[in-house]
Amino acid sequence: MTTNKLVNVFGEICGGNVSPVTGWDPQTAYEYVEFCLRGLEVKSREAFEIWLRNDLRRLFPYGMLLCGLGNFQATGLIAKHLVSIDCPIECGNTIKRCGSLLDNSIISKWLVGREPQLVDTKSAHDPGDCSTSANVHNLGKMASHGMVDVDGRTGTYFFFHRIPDHANERHAKLLKLLIPHLHQAFTRAVQPSADSLAVTRKMRQSLTHRELEVLDLLIKGKSNWEISKISNRSLTTVKHEVSKILSKLSVTTRVQAAARGVDLGLLDFMR
């Protein structure tokens, strides 16, 4: 069936008028279905980014998109995977400095009710938030929403910046329709290969249970002193364990160790 015929079908369904539920005309309704069908074909990170850049923008115009997939905690999202579309270099550098943690008051608020968040970043600047540090890069109005898996911990979150219009209830309703498809496509796009699973298994087996516990605390941003108090071990012992972790992961800093632990999913079985 051609595009014009499909649009005509949607026109007949809607009576040729705007839908009272979505507020869409037949053309927009067709584009939504087309977006969903193309999303089912996403099997790689590259395909996911193309889908976000082209198909998603037709339904939900934006200037910049930042999305993360990982584990939720009270203060944000420990992102195992990050994808950005048209992110300014300065903003991207800020995100890289923050490592894998999207420590964000917006996500914290979202976790309470899990409703789309609509924010004017110029009036909601929080210098401690990596994802809202976009304020200082003049990224304009923002809308965000996410989805949590059935385990209640892992999930995805999407920040849309530089929205052309004032963020309103229409954006919130649209996000509720789009996010389930974005979540599923993101999850498929980053599915690990057999080779990467083998690397993760080998790396995890090289670490002792105690070292994995320390790595978990490193990922959460704890200092050696805090780890010693939490684990009830001496500071000297903790420093020695951290040193062994760095060596086994072939990295030189704590931040690199935390990032590698998240990237390889070494602690997924503990969360």
- Total helices: the number is 11
The CATH topology of the largest domain is Beta-Lactamase
Low-confidence stretches: 123-128, 130-136
CATH class of the largest domain: Alpha Beta
- From the structure provided, what is the oligomeric state, counting identical versus distinct chains? single chain
Q: Roughly how many Å is the radius of gyration?
A: 21 Å
CATH superfamily placement of the largest domain: Transcription factor LuxR-like, autoinducer-binding domain
What does this structure look like?
The chain folds into 2 domains: 129 residues, Transcription factor LuxR-like, autoinducer-binding domain (Beta-Lactamase, 2-Layer Sandwich), CATH 3.30.450.80; 77 residues, Orthogonal Bundle (Arc Repressor Mutant, subunit A). α8 crosses α10, α8 crosses α11 and α9 packs across α10. The chain is of the alpha+beta class. The longest helix has 21 residues. About 5% of the residues have low confidence.
Condensed summary:
The protein is of the alpha+beta class. It has eleven helices and six strands. It has two domains: 61-189, Beta-Lactamase (2-Layer Sandwich); 194-270, Arc Repressor Mutant, subunit A, CATH 1.10.10.
Question: Which terms summarize this structure?
Answer:
single chain; Beta-Lactamase; 2 domains
Describe the secondary structure blueprint for this structure.
Layout: H1 3-13, H2 26-39, H3 45-59, E1 64-73, E2 76-85, H4 89-97, E3 101-103, H5 105-113, E4 117-120, E5 141-148, E6 154-161, H6 169-189, H7 194-206, H8 209-219, H9 224-231, H10 235-248, H11 254-264
Antiparallel strand pairs: 1-2, 1-6, 2-3, 4-5, 5-6
Helix pairs in contact: 1-2, 2-3, 8-10, 8-11, 9-10
